[in-house]
Structures are given as structure tokens and as C-alpha cells.
Amino acid sequence: MLTKVIEQSKIDHFTKWFERADRIVIVSHVSPDGDAVGSSLGLADFFDSQGKTVNVIVPNVFPDFLKWMPGSKDILLYDRYKDFADKLIAQADIICCLDFNALKRIDDMADAVAASPARKIMIDHHLHPEEFCKITISHPEISSTSELVFRLICRMGYFSDISLEGAECIYTGMMTDTGGFTYNSNNREIYFIISELLSKGIDKDDIYRKVYNTYSESRLRLMGYVLSNMKVYPDCHAALISLTKEEQSRFDYLKGDSEGFVNIPLSIKNVCFSCFLREDTEKPMVKISLRSVGTFPCNKVAAEFFNGGGHLNASGGEFFGTIEEAKEVFEQALQKYKPLLCSECPKSGK
Ligand code: 5GP
Ligand code: MN
């Protein structure tokens, strides 16, 4: 049995909306990841099974390694089909906001979503949700939005209507937001849910292969290159990797190719904080990705130094300046947080 994580009043409230709704739009965050796509498609599959008209809209393209997911071909990219998407958003009875906590996380879609008269529900697990939805289901203690989607569907009484395809999507989101169940994954109910998803017929080993082991050759060579230039700060239990625009074009970089790179330095003994700086190819900025092990709050560093945010162990931000300047800011952050990095690193001294 699962704990009743979502408040009953919210389940009842949403069920009332749901029963009356016909057109439902699901939106998720910019540069959608496995949880954004997985939770959206998992919920969409359920709505579809109940005869609703459902559309998933995301701000921009998602990585190739998620394109096998059932229903992914029907996801509407806002930056390509803005007019059509605006119409769907304006005419929706319900808008479900999945895996983001603030309107700015959906970029150019924010105005259309804010202006729509649709009833809005947030289902998310990021800290500090903004108030732009009538129903806010926000649970930072839950490791993925996909898990919350599973919990919502079950609590509404529709477990039996989750299809194999829906289960595959939910599993993918749970898996990717926990790094294949290697972090944020000690809640035993996660494994109860996986067991339920297996009962739907998912092949979890195959899903892992499709997500993590279908990269291009150039991506692997790029990884080798990036790691060969890695800088380690042993005194701060930290490491930094980076990628310039020039390097991206040299390795035929495709969006998503550096997905997961930021986690690799955490496999070094004594490193508990990792930073990846990547020059953006569209905007004049450096995208920052931060990861930590243990209780070091990398979201604090993201907020304080890089105008960003996120989770305790996975956060990010943006830096408007050169990559060299971003490195300097990172090193300033290391100096400031050195005492905490030393005291909080669970790998130090071992
Ligand atoms: P990633 O490193 O995978 O791009 O992002 C990891 C997490 O950091 C995301 O799930 C999100 O919570 C947070 N994040 C990434 N970029 C930003 C940003 O620019 N602003 C904020 N507020 N959070 C971000
Ligand atoms: Mn997520």
C-alpha cells in the first residue's frame, strides 16, 4: 500500500474538474528531460483512455533518447507551432503544469498559459512553487513528477486504466530523475510503484538501454574530450567540466549530447560537487548544471551565483558572460562554500 501523499481535498477537487472537462492541455518545462516528457505522456495516456482530447505542449525540442517513448511523436513544440499551440492553450478546459514550479520555466509559453481561462493544476516536485494554479500539488520530497502522476491516477481510482504505454512513460520519468535509482531513491514506495508498473508489462531493462545506451559515437568521443579537460578541486571536493561553442561544433554536437556529463565527476573518490558549464548555441549565455552528493545544497549555489535554482542535489542556472567569467564565478562560489563542502561531503575522509 502507498502512503496518501497527495491531500484528499486536491484529489477530489481535480476529479470534479476532470469529470466535466473535454479538452486538456499538458505543459512542461523548457529543455524537457525524461521526467518532463515521461510525466506528461503518462498523464496524457491516462486522459486519452478516458476519452478526453489531450495535447502535450513543451517549449522546445527534447533529446533524441526520449523519442522512442509512446506518444512522443504527438508532442507539440511551442517554438515551432506557436499559433496552433496558443489556440489549444486558450481553448483548454484544464491545463496541467507538470514538472515546473514557476511560469518562467516554460519560457515563451508563459504568457499564453497565464492568459488562458482554463482551470490550472500544477503537479511538481520542485521547491517553492509559485502561485499560478488553482490546484497546486507540490511535493519536493517525492523524487519525480512521474511518481506523482502515478499516485494521482491511482488515488482517482484508475490504476486499472494505466496502459502498458502509460506505465513505460511513468517508469522512464522515475528512472531518469533518480539517475537510474542511484540518488533521491531511498523511499521504499518507489519500488512498490515499480512493482506495480512491472505488472503492466513494462520491460525496465529495455527502457534503461533505450535511454542510456543509444548514444552516437561522437557523443562518446565528446565525453572523453570533456573529461580530459576536467578540473578537480580536491580541497573543495569539487570538479568542473566545460564545453565551448567551438568544441561543440568540432564534435558535431546535437542537443542532448552532453546530457548526464555533469554526473560523471561525482564518480571520483572524494568529489561531492560537480559543475558543468556549456556555452549556449541559441542565446548569448553559459548554461550551468550543478550536481551534489549528500546534503550539500547545490540549488543554493545556483540561486546565489547563477540566477537559477532546482533541487538539493541537482540544480542549474544561466550566466550571461563568457565561459571564463563563469569559471571564475564558480571558483568564487567554491571559496565561499568550502567549509560546507568539507563538512557535508559524505565521501570525505573515506
Ligand atoms: P539540468 O542540470 O539537468 O539542466 O537541471 C537540473 C535541475 O536544475 C532542473 O531539474 C531544474 O530543477 C534546475 N534548473 C536548471 N536550470 C535552471 C534555471 O535556469 N533556473 C532554475 N530556477 N532552475 C534550473
Ligand atoms: Mn522532475
Automatic annotation (TrEMBL):
Which part of the chain is the DDH domain? 23-174
Q: Which residues form the signal peptide?
A: none
Pfam families of this UniProt entry?
Answer: DHH (PF01368), DHHA1 (PF02272)
Gene3D superfamilies (alphabetical): 3.10.310.30, inorganic pyrophosphatase (n-terminal core) (3.90.1640.10)
Q: Which InterPro entries match?
A: DDH_dom, DHH_sf, DHHA1_dom, Oligoribo/pAp-PDE_c-di-AMP_PDE
Give start and end of each DHHA1 domain. Answer: 252-335
A GO molecular function assigned to this protein is: nucleic acid binding
| Name of the protein | Bifunctional oligoribonuclease/PAP phosphatase NrnA
Which organism encodes this protein?
Jilunia laotingensis
